[in-house]
């Protein structure tokens, strides 16, 4: 099912940051429904950044694959071809390997996977934010943009913090499962 982008113009970009962190804290306190938390938080993160779509990918148990577990605004064809990728694949792999936010307008690797109508046309730029805890990468979240504009430094700091908090939520879920 293709989901649509929320209206990012409804509030200033960083006005939603406090609300986002309240939602994150509430989700962390609940602790059980991790996928539900990821689904609920992706929409406000997309809106906060001014992106048109987003995705969350978690590392497989082997640590060799990134598996798409939540997305908003991705066409069904892109969702299918991006369902599982190698950990080192493209921009996501760069973010996971370097443990830092990676921006790119070179979306050739993504387009080659089968999303050429989306990557390079609808989406001209992408950011990948690692989800990490205690120096360990647990996944990546992506935001997809139609133009070359980047979020403000304040929004970028919020995006980094969201990655750290989601990393905490993932680590907590892993500990609870054990």
Largest sheet report: 6 strands, antiparallel
Proportion in β-strands: 15-25%
The structural class is: alpha+beta
Q: Tell the overall outline.
A: globular
Please state the average pLDDT score.
82
Strand order of the largest sheet: 3-2-1-6-5-4
Radius of gyration: 15 Å
Q: How far do the termini sit from each other?
A: 33 Å
Explained architecture:
The structure is a single chain. The chain is an alpha+beta fold. The chain has six helices and six strands, in the order H-H-E-E-H-E-H-E-H-E-E-H. A six-stranded antiparallel β-sheet has the order 3-2-1-6-5-4, sandwiched between helices. The longest helix is centred in the last third of the chain and has 25 residues. The N terminus is likely disordered.
Give me some keywords for this one.
178 residues; alpha+beta; six-stranded antiparallel sheet; 6 helices; 6 strands; 44% helix; disordered N terminus
Topology at a glance:
Blueprint: H1 16-30, H2 34-49, E1 53-59, E2 65-72, H3 76-81, E3 84-86, H4 90-98, E4 102-104, H5 108-115, E5 125-133, E6 136-145, H6 153-177
Antiparallel strand pairs: 1-2, 1-6, 2-3, 4-5, 5-6
Helix pairs in contact: 1-2, 1-6, 2-6
């Amino acid at each position: 099912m293709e989901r649509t982008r929320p209206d990012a113009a409804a509030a200033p970009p960083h006005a939603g940051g406090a609300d986002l962190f309240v939602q994150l804290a509430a989700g962390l306190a609940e602790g059980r429904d991790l996928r539900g938390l990821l689904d609920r938080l992706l929409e406000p993160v997309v809106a906060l950044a001014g992106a048109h779509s987003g995705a969350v990918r978690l590392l497989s148990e082997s640590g060799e694959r990134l598996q798409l577990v939540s997305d908003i605004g991705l066409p069904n064809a892109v969702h299918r071809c991006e369902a599982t990728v190698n950990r080192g694949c493209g921009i996501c792999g760069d973010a996971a390997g370097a443990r830092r936010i990676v921006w790119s307008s070179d979306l050739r690797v993504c387009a080659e996977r089968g999303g050429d109508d989306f990557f390079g046309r609808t989406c001209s730029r992408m950011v990948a934010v690692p989800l990490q805890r205690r120096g360990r990468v647990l996944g990546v979240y992506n935001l997809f943009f139609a133009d070359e504009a980047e979020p403000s430094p304040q929004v970028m700091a919020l995006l980094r913090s969201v990655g750290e908090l989601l990393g905490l939520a993932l680590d907590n879920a892993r500990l609870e499962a054990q």
